[in-house]
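Cross-check.
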Amino acid sequence: MSAQVPAQPTILAVDDSPVMRKTIQRILAGQYRVLLADNALDALSLIYHEPISLVLLDVSMPEIDGLEMCRTVRSLPQFQALPIIMLTARDKAFDKIKGQLAGATEYLTKPFDANRLLEIVGEYTRPKSPSTTES
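Predicted model, tokenized:
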């Protein structure tokens, strides 16, 4: 008797730091399928070719930064509802506003607590119940 196990949501972590990518993968690996990219171009390719449920995106990256990548993703109609969580060491109010203006769904500053990351990712990947209405 084999029950159908629902597929794990796929999380794309985009960060130029190998340590940060491994940290995110370690935190999320038990509950999610985690794809890693170290730059925006590779990340954009993955978004097109994989069923991504949520993007964790570093702001400070060489060449194309996270804000630019976020704006690019938001400009594509099929990805406008894709949750994008900015993960960054930049914690000034103006940085958070820039993240919002670029289209970020949420803004989490480094260093972050593993439980907080799981909580935020869970919030945006949990199936929405049709009986609940948002106010």
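The helical segments are 18-28, 40-49, 66-74, 93-102, 114-125. The first strand starts at residue 10 and ends at 14. Passed to J.P. for a second look.
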